[in-house]
Amino acid sequence: MNRRRVLSGAIAGASVSLLPASLLHAGNAPSAIAKTRAGTVRGLFEDRVYSFKGVRYGADTSNRRFMPPLAPTSWSHVAEAFQYGASAPQTGEKEATSEDCLFLNVWTPGLRDGGKRPVMFYIHGGAYSHGSGSSPLYDGRRLCRRGDVVVVTVNHRLNAFGYLYLGRLVAGDALADSGNAGMLDLILALQWVRDNAAEFGGDPDCVMLFGQSGGGAKIATLMAMPGARGLFHRAATMSGQQVTASGPLHATDRARALLAHLKLSDPNALRTVPRDQLVGALDIVDPIIGSGSLYFGPVLDDRGLPRHPFFPDAPQQSANIPMIIGNTHDETRLLIGAGDPTTFSLSWDELPSRLATQMRADISPERVVSEYRRLYPRYSPTEVFFAATTAGRSWRAAIIEAELRAQQGSPAYAYQLDWKAPKDGGKWGAPHTLDIPLVFDNIAVPDALTGSGPDAQRMADQMSEAFISFARTGNPNSRLLSGWEPYQLPRRQTMVFNNPSRLEDDPRGAERRLFSSVPFVQQGT
Asked: DSSP E strands: which ranges in 241-365?
């Protein structure tokens, strides 16, 4: 049996007790048995944590492409859960991918012990087109041990497989939900958590969503989806926001562009196009944006998503769910700078034209340069470039969401990560993704930008404890971090994470005011 494919279904029954370690072994590690509603799975017990990887929460989607997910078929054998399941099909992925990708992973300190631990459900980034729940950065063991919590990560359909909207091109209801299939996968995964949390020592009534970049955007979207109501009770978004969804007309234009590229006249033919052929077509130029590859994201389809996530206001259905809304100080040093080394050697003459293509705001770049030189006279052209692009495209949507929550009277805690990554002599500042290893307390992972020094560990201690406290109580103040107040107008209280951290009112307020003078349009929507 392929260990990446743990068959599942809907058997309900009594829990299976943990068998003696002397009788159940996988390699050098003792294994453990858990019984889900779907059937029995065998995981590992290492370093005081039980892990179950590649647990199926949904049926194979290859024969239901673009359709809502289904619960899997039940099984009667013991299915191995030792290795991660396949990731969703995507460009550039080196790991195994498959349309059969509805798998999740669980780390827990205890099994069916009545522990009622908070469940921390992480949604990966990579926009809506890339990524998986199997990155070493997302390994949940240290969070489990540190906070006595259950950690879950998840795979779901991405790009065209999860967000290609065909509802206006195919008659009937069969593909009416295609624009949000990936979001419906996440809802199914949350239903799995509701139904199985107790078996893994967790509390189905204390589920926290947290996610970075595209993961945060997916969380913001779930907050406006009626199908997700009641399935989670806290939400933390890290450098990821979704103010608006793609409109159905633009989403349809993208589907037409894909059809034209593949030389198909019948939209139904997309259901049987070979997987690799469909993946190969994803990099065509987006017909709405006019550059870059096809944009995929949630669609305002008046079905699963009947309103924009944070327009014209914060979703009422999630008004009582506490939120953390955070960003890093230097988002675009990695988002842009990692792919374009020339941004680190800009001249003042080059700067306006480079800003014009990267701020994602229709504002005079000369005006922006002038204001930043006034605010920060010691900044170089490169420093102005990264500060302005961060404020204009990455940070601004977080401010919008926090302000809408404040206007609604809903609890939201804002943070800004100022602590700088030591990698490459500090070249990256506090970049996009830096908060992931800090929140997971995984700074020793090779891919972490943090390094594993004592200063990084102090930051990881603060951030991981804050997220654990938030998962448990809905309040991020902890034994290591106090004084974090909810974001309210006009103060705009924000926790600035650093060594030491501090609460600050309206950090970078002048930059916020500069970009608030022009309308915000979320790219792709």
From this structure: 323-328
pLDDT of amino acid 21: 36
Q: From the CA atom positions of the chain, what is the Rg in Å?
A: 23
The Cβ of residue 342 has, within 10 Å, a number of other Cβ atoms equal to 10
Enumerate the CATH 3.40.50.1820 domain ranges in the chain, comma separated: 1-102+110-191+213-232+246-321, 323-515
Per annotation, catalytic residue among 213, 246, 410, 464: 213
Q: Scan for tokens 């390699």, then name that residue.
A: 27
Q: Which residues pair with 494 in a beta bridge?
A: 414, 504
The three-class DSSP label of residue 56 is strand
Q: Using CB atoms within 10 Å of the CB of residue 284, give its burial: 0 to 12 exposed, 13 to 18 middle, 19+ buried.
A: middle
Of 49, 55, 176, 150, the closest CA to residue 104 belongs to 55
Q: Measured between alpha carbons, how far is 448 from 434 in angstroms, rounded to an integer?
A: 8
Q: Is 135 a catalytic residue?
A: no
Report how far residue 489's alpha carbon sits from residue 367's, in angstroms, rounded to the nearest whole number.
27
**Max Cα–Cα distance, the chain, nearest Å:** 71
DSSP helix/strand/coil, 361: coil
Is 323-515 assigned to CATH 3.40.50.1820?
yes
3-state secondary structure of 242: coil
Instruction: Extract the tokens encoding 331.
Output: 């988002």
Q: Tell me how many degrees the CA angle 108-148-231 measures, rounded to the nearest 5.
A: 70
Per residue in 207-240, pLDDT tens? Answer: 999 999 999 999 999 999 999 999 999 999 999 9
Cis peptide upstream of residue 341 (ω within 30 degrees of 0): no
Burial zone of 454 (CB within 10 Å; 0-12 exposed, 13-18 middle, 19+ buried): exposed
Residue 309: closest CA among 248, 258, 242, 370: 242
pTM passes above 0.85: yes
Whether residue 118 has a cis bond before it, omega within 30° of 0: no
Q: What is the pLDDT of residues 441-456, one digit of tens each?
A: 999 999 899 999 999 9
- Fold for the domain defined by 1-102+110-191+213-232+246-321: Rossmann fold (3.40.50)
